[in-house]
Amino acid sequence: MSDVTPRVTASYLSNFTSQPAVRMVGQVTALAGDTATVDSQGSVQVQLTRDSHLSVGQYYEFIGKVVNLGGGLGLKVMSVCDWGSNIDMNLVAAVVEISHKYHEIHYE
Question: For the residues of 6-59, what is the DSSP string, one character each?
Fold first, then answer.
């Protein structure tokens, strides 16, 4: 299962520093150059690619590598998928929790 990308929120980043890639859904709260601040049950700095075209207030699924971005752990983006402007983040967090509770089904 080398293509497995565990789902994470801000609180799970530290568990996946050696993982090649993770998936994180969150709302963009700020953009500055090649960096976005994303709310995913906590604030996460996301290093964007040149192809990333994001809008503040929109929700996105980010696939990327957990890295140290100077001020703490963040995500270096590999790809982004626009999820729109109306997402139930409590439901997203519940999916993340279940995937970690039953990790042997989801990513092992």
Answer: -EE-GGGGGGGTTSS-EEEEEEEEEEETTEEEEESSSEEEEEPPTT----TT-E
The H-or-E segment that residue 65 falls in is strand 59-68
pTM of this prediction?
Answer: 0.90
Tens of pLDDT along the chain (108 residues)?
Answer: 457 789 999 999 999 999 999 999 999 999 999 999 999 999 999 999 988 899 999 999 999 999 998 789 999 999 999 999 999 999 999 999 888 788 776 565
Q: What's the token pair of residue 67?
A: 């890295």
